[in-house]
Write a structure and sequence with these properties.
Quinone Oxidoreductase, Chain A, domain 1; binds zinc ion; 6-stranded parallel β-sheet; Rossmann fold; 7-stranded mixed β-sheet; alpha/beta
């Protein structure tokens, strides 16, 4: 038997191929993939920025949902037919990070769907320890949002955001928007800085105060909104120098800054402001198991994550799905439907 898989083959190209359907190995679970979300990381792959890491024949995709279709030897606690999502991290268990309990930032971390083949295929074999089961009434389409939501949950947890605090989110893409949603869920007042008018409109509809840096001084506006105090917590999600300038300028005395964005270049940071206001900065990378558990509970409690799903394409149209994202000002989250092509 063979299955269909979408391979990234370099040069902004995906190739649909028939491949063997290997049985899950010992300790592995096979999932019939239902939906796969396209992540910012996947777009980086598409643009060729990660060729050194992924090579030129790789099935990508890690934001997914599906149904267990087979179990490898020795797998317990999960059954064929269970509806699941995958926490796409495989750790070594030996390094200092793993030994300290921080397996999600293992020094030899394998990210499934980048360092190994991912979810853009009809069947995906993954280590059983990466599986999280879904509540019976959660749709598989909504469940594809759990992975990016877990990122946001981890960020908010790392920042120790409390009820009644003011959170400033710099950057209103899918992760920024999800951080804002989680921040509101924990009872914070949420301000979102973003230049895209479509995203600012969505922010307004979701109950966040949207501010556009192209139309005014966001730090001054945050200072005014908070009665000269500034933001208790700032999430830097933009990955830009203006974002880094804003994070220190808008932070309250003893404010916490959470670094979410991947800054490929060394940014200039206002260290005087750090000293002067006794600021604190934490890094936040991917998620831990408890972030997945919380994300699943939040969606079950009605967090409206489906509002971010703007586009849907079948597996056979992965190429078109990525092309449609180029310079697209209205797209937020694109989902690939895999199951239908089975
Ligand atoms: Zn992702
Ligand atoms: Zn490790």
């Amino acid at each position: 038997m063979t299955i269909q898989a979408a391979y990234y083959t370099g040069h902004k190209t995906f190739t649909l191929e028939e491949k063997d359907d290997p049985a899950p190995g010992p300790g592995e679970v096979q999932i019939r993939v239902a939906f796969v979300g396209i992540c910012g990381t996947d777009i980086h792959v598409y643009h060729g920025n990660m060729d050194a890491r992924v090579g030129s024949h790789r099935v990508i995709g890690h934001e997914m949902s599906g149904t267990v279709s087979a179990l490898g030897e020795g797998v317990t606690g999960v059954a064929v037919g269970d509806r699941v999502v995958v926490r796409p991290l495989d750790h070594c268990g030996q390094c200092p990070a793993c030994q300290a309990g921080y397996t999600h930032i293992c020094h030899k971390l394998k990210f499934l769907g980048l360092d190994t083949d991912g979810a853009l295929q009809e069947h995906w074999n993954v280590p059983a320890h990466t599986i999280h089961k879904l509540p019976a009434d959660m749709s598989l389409e909504t469940a594809a949002m759990i992975e990016p939501l877990a990122v946001a949950v981890h960020d908010v947890r790392r920042a120790r955001l409390q009820t009644g605090e003011t959170a400033l989110v710099i950057g209103g893409g899918p992760i920024g928007m999800l951080i804002a949603m989680v921040a509101k869920h924990v009872g914070a007042n949420v301000i979102l800085s973003e230049i895209n008018p479509n995203r600012l409109r969505l922010a307004g509809e979701m109950g966040f105060t949207g501010l556009n840096p192209r139309e005014g001084d966001v730090a001054a506006q945050v200072t005014e909104i908070t009665g000269t105090k500034g933001a208790d917590v700032v999430f830097e999600v933009s990955g830009t120098q203006p974002g880094v300038d804003l994070m220190t300028a808008a932070a309250a005395t003893r404010g916490r800054i959470c670094m979410v964005a991947i800054h490929a270049q060394k940014a200039q940071v206002d260290l005087f402001r750090f000293f002067w206001r006794e600021l604190e900065m934490v890094g936040a990378r991917v998620y831990e198991a408890e972030d997945y558990d919380r994300a699943i509970r939040m969606i079950a409690d009605g967090l409206p994550v489906n509002r971010l799903i703007t586009d849907r394409h079948p597996l056979g149209a992965v190429q078109q799905a990525f092309e449609a994202l180029e310079g697209n000002a209205t797209a937020m989250k694109t989902l690939i439907r895999v199951e239908e092509t089975a």
